[in-house]
């Protein structure tokens, strides 16, 4: 039925042109043969419906809704608007719109659902939802006689007018309704495809519509991707060529959007089946790069991580293999010395660790009689309460045949005492709870163990080697090494390819790097323990372990605490390496004797015998004896009680001065305005009577404070004004209970550390924190 009223016919030709322009802009592309149905309904020659609607009346269609205006709008999902419904033949519409007795308007809160326009108060005009499929025409209207901004929705039997408060809201409603209507049509059309060549055209039209829409919202690009992913999931028998054509068609949408989970599975399948396809390089590369740069949490979308893993494996299948992967990693880092994208490294590490873990999990779950990861950790092999294994897509399924001779072999340690584990489980003890164990729980359990040999197939070994080599590549970038060390610190595992990574950590002079070699917490093994002689990953007679000790001793770990830890847990390996002439271990044993770390006389004699068995050990032990004699002379009663070094004095000057006589009575030492550093702490700890120490305006830092806090328990006054100390060193002062005066003026002290020091130092009375954060 026609809803427009009669009018002059002189404007029919122009109006027909305007209507054709409108529908070309509104429709953009055909929907499986639907070639702008409205053109036949609303345009015509003189005297036709189109001529009547545009013949000089006060109500006119506005043509400025096309995206060429450059305006951008947020997609509306709901909002308040005035509604008027006119139910009568179209031939009277113009007369109705120009009448001053226009039908009444109702306020409604409308919601734009996926299939219809509904009201929060289903009464009056909006008693029933208005389906998008019932909307024949969607237009903008404007009044010349009144400031009203309307959107016209034409449906069989009537017209719905939506009146907004201003022109921007009107256009926002128009574009949002237009988008909902079109996406609803595409969803229906692509739900039951018949000819795939036509479907491909419609997919391209859908992509073009999303790219040219003036709406700015995440769903504008995500909705087409979800429609296409559903289409692909329901039609898995597509040819390879159809796969590639669809991927190329949707590539523009993926430039600024992550693929949805179903689409990730489709991409994974393509990477596995056609790893050498140009689609992998040309289309998937920018998608994976965007994922690595912008993804914040793979836990929320694990299929993004799985797609990234499959993409990297596809690159490894190319002729150049790991060289292509290396170039990809370099492209993610960038050509400069500093990677501009902070999320790239954590995401790459997450991908690598998940792939490595999946190799072991895939192998264990593929065997019917193999214990699960949790059962290996708990030391049992009960099968009745095991959950069915989750299928993993990382590895292609293979029959559980015996692995080849050259496959890698990992020794997994199992607890001997199965009864205690079973009892803990029956009592509900915390032997791991219901959570799945991690890789470390499976590979590192207890030294007193039986062993279970896990032999990985050659295919799994290739995957393992690929991602382990990526970790090796990451360790070669200086700016990434601190964060990489921190990420790998809680999860050490014995993989041969990772030894290079640990060596890079052990060679790095930065404390934030090599400090991650130690365990993340007490009671948990770290890389330091894994590569010590007797550790599950040690295959070099302790050479890497010795280099770790060397770098740690050269940093701020030359303390009693670190030496006590070595004496309690690694004294045997240290003595063995010292017996073989390792200079670092010889130095360690000498320090243990010098700092009285070993109380047992027999152990002390054994250490001395070990030192005297090699030339380097004998030489360093003789030097130790000489230092001890000098120390006794230094600490002999006598000498001055107060001493002030001249300005510009150095660590060597202080050492030379203290070696010149007895300073057993020295109680007050001023090094203010000198050039001494933390290295002079080794001389200061030899002064047994020292009570007041002035380090004002020196380069004395955190490492020196740690050493002082362990040896000068009687220190009462300490001046650190204008020194480079930070919270890391100042916190060590909490063990100096005799401190009663502490000057931290102009240091990097924070408020939290200041409060902690006040709580732990009961005798602290005089404190200067001016020009600090705690001031």
From TrEMBL:
Q: What keywords appear on the UniProt entry?
A: Cytoplasm, Leucine-rich repeat, Nucleus, Repeat
Q: Which residues form a coiled coil?
A: none
Q: Does RNA-binding show up as a keyword for this record?
A: no
Spell out the subcellular localization from the entry.
Cytoplasm; Nucleus
Q: Name one GO cellular component term.
A: nucleoplasm
Question: What are the start and end residues of every segment in region (Disordered)?
Answer: 32-56, 379-407
Statement: the UniProt record of this protein carries the keyword Repeat = yes
Q: What is this protein called?
A: C-Maf-inducing protein
Record organism:
Scophthalmus maximus
């Amino acid at each position: 039925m026609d809803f427009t009223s009669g009018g002059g016919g002189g404007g029919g030709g122009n109006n027909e042109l305007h209507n054709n322009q409108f529908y070309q802009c509104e429709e953009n592309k055909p929907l499986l043969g639907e070639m702008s149905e409205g053109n036949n309904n609303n345009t015509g020659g003189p005297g036709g419906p189109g001529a009547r609607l545009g013949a000089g009346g006060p109500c006119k269609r506005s043509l400025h809704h096309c995206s060429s205006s450059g305006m951008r709008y947020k997609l509306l999902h709901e909002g308040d608007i005035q509604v008027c419904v006119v139910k009568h033949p179209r031939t009277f519409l113009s007369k109705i719109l120009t009448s001053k007795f226009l039908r009444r308007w109702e306020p409604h809160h409308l919601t734009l659902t996926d299939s219809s326009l509904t009201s929060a108060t289903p009464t009056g005009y909006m008693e029933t939802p208005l389906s998008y499929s019932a909307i024949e025409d969607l237009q903008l209207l404007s009044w010349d006689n009144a400031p009203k901004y309307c959107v016209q929705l034409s449906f069989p039997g009537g017209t719905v007018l939506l009146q907004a408060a201003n022109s921007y809201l009107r256009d926002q409603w128009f574009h949002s309704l237009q988008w909902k209507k079109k996406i609803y049509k595409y969803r229906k059309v692509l739900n039951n495809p018949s000819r795939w060549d036509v479907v491909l055209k419609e997919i391209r039209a859908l992509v073009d519509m999303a790219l040219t829409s003036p709406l700015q919202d995440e769903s504008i690009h995500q909705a087409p991707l979800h429609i296409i992913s559903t289409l692909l999931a329901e039609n898995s028998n597509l040819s390879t060529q159809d796969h590639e054509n669809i991927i190329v068609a949707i590539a523009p949408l993926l430039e600024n959007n992550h693929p949805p989970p179903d689409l990730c599975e489709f991409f994974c399948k393509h990477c596995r089946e056609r790893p050498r396809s140009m689609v992998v390089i040309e289309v998937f590369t920018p998608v994976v790069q965007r994922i690595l740069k912008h993804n914040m949490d793979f836990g929320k979308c694990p299929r993004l991580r799985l797609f990234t893993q499959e993409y990297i494996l596809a690159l490894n299948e190319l002729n150049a293999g790991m060289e292509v992967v290396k170039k990809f990693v370099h492209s993610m880092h960038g050509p400069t010395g500093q990677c501009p994208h902070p999320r790239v490294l954590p995401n790459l590490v997450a991908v690598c660790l998940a792939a490595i873990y999946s190799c072991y999990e895939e192998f264990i779950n593929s065997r019917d009689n193999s214990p699960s990861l949790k059962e290996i950790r708990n030391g049992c092999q009960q099968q009745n309460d095991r959950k069915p294994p989750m299928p993993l897509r990382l590895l292609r399924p293979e029959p559980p045949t015996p692995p080849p001779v050259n496959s890698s072999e990992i020794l997994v340690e199992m607890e001997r005492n199965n009864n205690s584990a079973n009892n803990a489980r029956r009592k509900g003890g915390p032997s791991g709870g219901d959570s799945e164990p991690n890789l470390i729980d499976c590979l590192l359990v207890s030294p007193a163990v039986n062993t279970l040999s896990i032999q990985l197939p050659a295919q799994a070994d290739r995957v393992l080697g690929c991602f382990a080599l990526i970790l090796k590549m990451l360790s070669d970038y200086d700016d990434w090494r601190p964060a990489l060390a921190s990420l790998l610190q809680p999860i050490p595992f014995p993989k041969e390819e990772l030894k290079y990574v640990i060596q890079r950590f052990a060679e790095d002079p930065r404390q934030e790097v090599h400090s991650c070699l130690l365990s993340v917490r007490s009671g948990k093994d770290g890389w330091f323990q894994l590569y010590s002689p007797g550790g599950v990953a040690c295959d070099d007679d302790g050479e890497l372990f010795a280099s770790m000790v060397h770098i740690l001793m050269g940093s701020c770990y030359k303390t009693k605490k670190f030496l006590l830890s070595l004496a309690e847990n690694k004294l045997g390996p240290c003595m063995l390496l010292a017996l073989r002439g390792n200079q670092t271990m010889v130095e360690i044993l000498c320090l243990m004797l010098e700092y009285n770390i070993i109380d047992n006389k027999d152990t002390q004699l054994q250490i001395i015998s070990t030192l005297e068995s090699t030339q380097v050990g004998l030489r360093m032990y003789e030097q130790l004896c000489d230092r001890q004699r000098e120390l006794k002379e230094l600490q002999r009663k006598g000498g001055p009680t107060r001493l002030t070094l001249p300005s510009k004095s150095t660590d060597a000057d202080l050492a030379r001065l203290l070696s010149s006589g007895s300073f057993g009575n020295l109680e007050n030492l001023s090094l203010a305005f000198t050039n001494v550093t933390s290295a002079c702490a080794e001389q200061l700890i030899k002064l047994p009577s020292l009570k007041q120490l002035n380090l004002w305006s020196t380069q004395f830092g955190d490492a020196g404070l740690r050493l002082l806090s362990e040896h000068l328990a009687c220190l009462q006054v300490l001046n650190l004004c204008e020194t480079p100390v930070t919270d890391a060193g100042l916190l060590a002062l909490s063990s100096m209970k005799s401190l009663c005066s502490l000057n931290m003026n102009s240091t990097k002290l924070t408020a939290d550390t200041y409060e902690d020091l006040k709580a732990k130092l009961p005798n602290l009375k005089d404190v200067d924190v001016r020009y600090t954060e705690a001031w």
